[in-house]
Design brief:
By secondary structure, the chain is of the alpha+beta class. It contains seven helices and nine strands. The structure holds a DNA duplex.
Amino acid sequence: VSATTRLEPLPAAFYERPQHEVAADLLGMVLVRDSPVGTVEALIVETEAYGGPEDLASHARAGKTARTEPMFGAVGRAYVYLVYGMHHCLNVVAHAHGAAGAVLIRAALPLAGVDLVAARRSGSRRGARGTTARLTRLVPERAAAGPALVCQALDVDRSFTGADLIRGEALRLGRPPAAELAMVRGAGVVTGPRVGVDYAGDEWASRPWRFGLRGHPALSRPFRAS
DNA sequence: CATAGGATTTGCT
DNA sequence: GCAAATCCTATGC
């Protein structure tokens, strides 16, 4: 996929399906973040699906609350939350009609605006012990290799919750040309249990709702063979 | 109203 | 491999 690829918005119908199907199909799609200082594009390489109240690993397990209300609402919107008091994570609302759910963007590969990503990381005070990310270690393949790193790279925080990713301006999600998408997805898709949801109990913690491009260098962490 | 713990990342041991 | 950083949410009294 080129750095200046032409993107088509995905129709609402794409997102209005069971969230695990949407999660698998979002691999190879591209996030675009426009800001006054420049544009960053990032190829989605890893996702996780989260369901409604029935999914004990999902934020929606407590039903509709002030925080999780977006998961019950219009598809194709952003749902951004704060974890561990310091990290933001980006989701795309996706669910069957009348249901609830979202897809967490767990890892991406910066395609354009890599310098801007590097600048954001070097100036970041996020992370343990108030330390600063080391620029020397920032290779593009690892710059957004985790859900919180995706938000750092794209400069996304909770103010983006509710933003329309289909026709958005500052942040949007689109499909690259068919040939490029086919090339990227040619590696194949691997699945595995979602990360960090042991509290949900065996049935939901073991559900294979984590998806990744096989062998991609920007994955947040390895998948077990599948 | 008080409190436990989290869809994480980092640097040190 | 471990624990810190840090704050919001959900839950329980």
